[in-house]
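Issue 218. Parser rejects a valid record. Input:
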Amino acid sequence: MIRLVVLGAGTAIPMTGYSPAGHLIQSDSGFLLVDIGPGTLSRLAAVGVDYRELDHILITHHHSDHTLDLVTLIQAFESTPGWVREKALQLVGGRGTGEFLRQLMVTYPGIGPTSYQVVIHEMMQGTLEFSGWEVKSTLTGHTPDSLAYRLEVDGKVVVFSGDATLTMDLVNLAEQADVFVCECSFPGSSGVGDHLAAEQVGWIAAKARVKKLVLVHMYPYTLKSDLQAQIRKEYSGQVVVAMDGLELFL
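Output the parser choked on:
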């Protein structure tokens, strides 16, 4: 059984119940995070998962609302009394992720790692395999190096758009996903440059024939609109407007 928890359903804008991006996937193969925005580790503890169990972090892009708790995690690994991490941390991201981590270490000196390795995997459009996990990625157009991910584990498929634009590459990546976790920054039919709007999200979900659509990364005023109705102009499947803590079992 796969457990999916939306740890952060919002944006960088402070709002109760809608924290910055973070998503947990739990399976027999272990624990994996997709994005690790500020406060992700506290919300992870709230759903009963020990940060020391994290071995795989997938970053969609390097903006602060998707990455800030990476610093917290590395410092926690280094400074937990009575425990020394030895297992490598697998860090997946777009081009420049290695340099991004190096700059973090310069900005926050002395936080680690000293007893383990951070193994960097920089992706564009491709496939990466870990024990029990298959990760596929494609570029999303939000930034030059931003990624969406398709995770295949235990016979199930979960796709994360990250922050994205309307592309056929994203449609192809999400093809027949069991769950498609997609940003829905704006209401209506037109995104603002580097983000998606509700009807665009519905169009992608319909073209990809996803089984369940989960909306995340919604700005406060977006949540005041009827997103379900806007999505259903294009997509007839199940739609869930997420809040922090949404939990699904596949």
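Fixed in the parser; the record now loads. The mean pLDDT is 97.
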